[in-house]
Amino acid sequence: MNALVPLIVMLPLLGAAVTLIFGRNPRLQVVVTTGTLVAVSVIAAVLLAAVDAANEPFAVSVGGWPVPFGIILYVDRLAALLVLISSIVLLAVLLFSIGQGAADGAEETPISIFNPTYLILAAGIFDAFIAGDLFNLYVGFEILLVASYVLITLGSTESRIRTGAVYIVVSLVSSILFLAAIAMIYGAVGTVNMAQVAERVAQLPQETQLVLHLMLLIAFGIKAAIFPVSFWLPDSYPTAPAPVTAVFAGLLTKVGVYALIRTETQLFASNDINTLLQIVALATMVIGVLGAVAQAELKRILSFTLVSHVGYMIFGLAIATEDAIGATVYYIVHHIVVQTTLFLAVGLIERKAGSTSILRVSGLMKAAPVLAVLYFVPAINLGGLPPFSGFIGKVALFEAAAGVGTPMMIVLIFGGILTSLLTLYALMRAWNLAFWREDDGAAENDGRIEYLGNAPAADEQGETREIPAIMTYATAGMVAVTVALTVFAGPLYALCDRIGAGLLTPVTLEQIDEGAG
Known about the structure:
The chain is built from 20 helices and two strands. With 517 residues, it is mostly helical. Strands 1-2 form a two-stranded antiparallel ribbon.
């Protein structure tokens, strides 16, 4: 099984090289990109089943260097699960982009550029998930960020260049902080191997641990878009092409959250900052969802809900029990799938109605009943209505918090309930106006939503465009996956429980050495 581990990163990089060579053959590019992501999905599924059955991680020392001197690629249950979910999401968004490219040509997603860049993005995401040392994690971040710089500015419109510049500056600041933290950690403990760092950092004075800990928290917090370093996200994501926005919303912030999970459960388990995390989680949930309620543009609504629901993941980390970590992992999987699906559905709305402003879109229930379903199902799921996966994940987090029972946990539970209700309100208000409202005129004079008239980025009405069948099928497939998270919640949640228990058990260098053997 160890031989499969490097393929997770190698296949997308090789695929990107092939698609660059055949840049003038769009069909071959599409075949290579699709085949690569399918292959990674199969490999991830095999590795997940194998690592779960073996109850021990797989590890590979790149170049045959002895542990810990070589670059370690490390696959445990968490890494395998996230690679599998990410590859499925990347594949669905790719199919969506194929349909968009077929209908619009190179206007939105030029295939010769999009496919190789998309595979490089995938390689960076996968590398971050299976990195066994901090520097390789940094490399994974930089690979995906370089690709994201290209993807977020596709089309080269003024708004995309402007917001892309903000995204680049913020990402560079985060990367500089991360690199500085790696240098300080190496200076303090003499290694960047995560297992060795976890063993040695506990021997440092608490003040030194706290400085190193907070530097990683800030660097990863920017990438995960937690409050107060989430200001960049709502302005950056909505301007990108629909497939790019969908994959960014579903995956990029979760790479930051994944890094925070490794930091809190393994690297700095001996340095407790849970009170700070609890405050950050509450602020992220509540302030994010209040921003969503104040928006009149669907992409901005979803961008703010993305920020607020990252708060649930930090909430789980701040509880710091096995049950809470398992619930957090389940919620990450749920959110990756549901958030991506909603952005794909909004992409379809934009094509059908020519706008994503809920002040201008109306009457879609009659004009596009299938689209109404494709939006409604993930919307109520994200809002936390039973019996969907959003409800299951939130209840699990609340139960874990209630088990701790401190006053701050009670406040967090009420904050989580409020966030869920306001999420449901914002998404259902949008559904009511865009799908149920009969009149074709503007809604600015409607007293019920008059306060939205001054909301930012309420886009102007544009031309409607054809929706190729493959775009609808890709979105419907993702909706089916969101439902599957509920139907198969039992075995998935049991797996997440095992992940939670494993993360709070220190991984030794000897275990990694055995896994690489």
